[in-house]
Amino acid sequence: MSLIQLENVTKLYDPDLILDDISVAIEHGDRIGLIGRNGTGKTTLIKIINGMLANFKGKVISAKGLRIGYLSQEPELARDCTLRQEMLKVFKKRRVLEDKMLLLAEEMETQETSDLLAHYARLQEQHEQLGGYDYEHQINRILGGLGFNASDFNLPIRVLSGGQKSRATLAKLLLEAPDLLLFDEPTNHLDIKGIEWLENYLNIEYNGAVLVVSHDRYFLDKVVRKVWELAKHKIKIYRGNYSKYVETKKVEQLVGEREFKKQQAFIEHEEDFIRRNIAGQRTREAQGRRKKLARLERVDKPKPDAPTIQLNFTPETRGGNDILRCQNVGKTFGDKTIFTDLNFEVYRRDVVGIIGANGTGKTTLFRMILGEEPTTEGEMWVGPTLKFGYYTQELEGLNPDNEIIDEIWALRPQQTQGEIRSFLAKFLFSGDDVFKRIGNLSGGEQSRILLAKLLLANANVLLLDEPTNHLDIPAREALEAALAEYPATLFIISHDRYLLNNLATKLLIFDGTPGGTANLFEGNYAEYTAEQEQQAHQGNQQPSENEQASQHSQTSSQKSKSKSKRKRKIKAQRLVGSN
């Protein structure tokens, strides 16, 4: 029997239809990615599966004793508990047994009877069946994997940030190990290291089923083996991960177009025959063909995908070839060192992906480039003819009291209302939508407004801080396509590994140690991880002294060749002092 089965589920939020006659099942061990545009009903479907919504048509049939864990986007934790205490709640049964065993042990110190020994043995067996004493290790491992330090464990929940609370909720859910995990954007508050840890945990250690709503395409590639596409109120099921789904969709589109054209040509041929012969000698044949044509099951014309945002970033001026040079740059706030010893150069048309743990100074570096923060040590040179466009992950730069049209019109006051409305239509704001207040918009809608303002800046250097955070997959793909055509320089802070793979020519990797630094890597994210894996593999091997000498010689030769190629590719590096 399936873990859970939906039969003919239909849901309306009067008068809008959200889900229409949905029939799907989740089996043991399934890894399902639920994808679809924002607002198509993904969260609604998950809440129905979890029993949080009852006002719908159809049936939801669950396996007996099914335990479901739901990670929502709104964490629910006890404010006055510490982080560790909240995790310990998962193991309440074991801890109760431990208290009983302790009391029995104390009682047996004064009288050791066979009944007490038997009772203690039964409690001990129950305790071991539940997992024994390993839960402290589990708590430490899972909290550590999700980015918490040991110093965080005794912090009250109320002092944690929103992102930390989301990660704490995820940790508690993993510790509970339910039969079915329902995830709603589980990677939102994780850095790349945390996302990779979660992928490994789900792939190696967790044995239950997973249904995940996510716009993280790399995560979907790593974790899911089946895709549910929710579109036009229906679900269509695809086998494989996200990349396989994309390939299958392309093939479906091509086959659909081919079949439609083939049938249209056949229909046109038959109709032509009928017109020419309906009143002639071949009347009976023409009538027969007309009857067959009337009974023909028509192939629907393939419908284009729903519209998505339209972007075209165009620099007003070209700017120079030398964009940024850092020599021994460091930054401290008070007695806290954020980073130190940054040494790298950036040239025109470089796409620099910036990665590292939260709090390592990535956004601070952006503010230093913009001149909003001074360097504490070292020298930073920024090209004199640069015009910056800055996208903040906090969605700053929007007036919550403004209507959408006024927010954009202020940047182009010479244009007519019609021209502004046409421009906003490229960002999916049409009709009365343009009169909505900024403060009432969703994160995704505000993100589209910021991208619209960024486009109007006509900058020749773009600084993008988590630009895909609030975008659905089609909008992410549209943004990627536009940035790929951008004929200038990009700096992108992102946990979106798909984006970094498709765009980055260099990676600036913050090492995450207190007061640490960042190193420049030539290549995209896949190339970087491949090199990391190769180094780890080589580190696990222990060659002889002769082999080490040979490897050293080969490595030196390879580095020499690599340097020569790099010089040809990006110019020889120059010191700041040479200016």
**What's the arrangement of strands in the largest beta sheet?**
5-6-7-3-8-9
| Helix share bin | 40-55%
CATH class of the domain at 322-541, named Alpha Beta
- The CATH topology of the domain at 322-541 is Rossmann fold
- The named CATH superfamily of the domain at 322-541: P-loop containing nucleotide triphosphate hydrolases
Q: What is the number of helices?
A: 18
| Global shape | globular
Tell me the total number of β-strands: 18
Strand percent estimate: 15-25%
| pLDDT < 50 runs, ≥5 residues | 549-579
* Rg measurement, Å: 30 Å
How far apart, in Å, are the first and last alpha carbons? 73 Å
Q: What is the residue-mean pLDDT, rounded to a whole number?
A: 89
CATH architecture of the domain at 322-541: 3-Layer(aba) Sandwich
Instruction: Report the structural category.
Output: alpha/beta
Largest sheet report: 6 strands, mixed
Textual characterization of the structure:
It is a single chain. This protein is of the alpha/beta class and 579 residues long. Among the domains are: 253-295, no CATH class; 322-541, 3-Layer(aba) Sandwich (Rossmann fold), CATH 3.40.50.300. Helix content is 42%, strand content 20%. It has helices spanning 42-49, 83-88, 92-108, 114-129, 135-145, 162-176, 192-205, 217-223, 242-277, 283-295, 362-369, 404-409, 417-425, 443-456, 473-484, 497-503, 525-540, 545-570, and strands at residues 4-13, 16-26, 31-35, 57-62, 68-71, 180-184, 209-213, 226-231, 234-239, 322-333, 336-347, 351-355, 377-382, 388-391, 461-465, 489-493, 506-510, 518-522. A six-stranded mixed β-sheet has the order 5-6-7-3-8-9, with helices on both faces. The longest helix has 36 residues, at 242-277. It is globular and about 115 Å long.
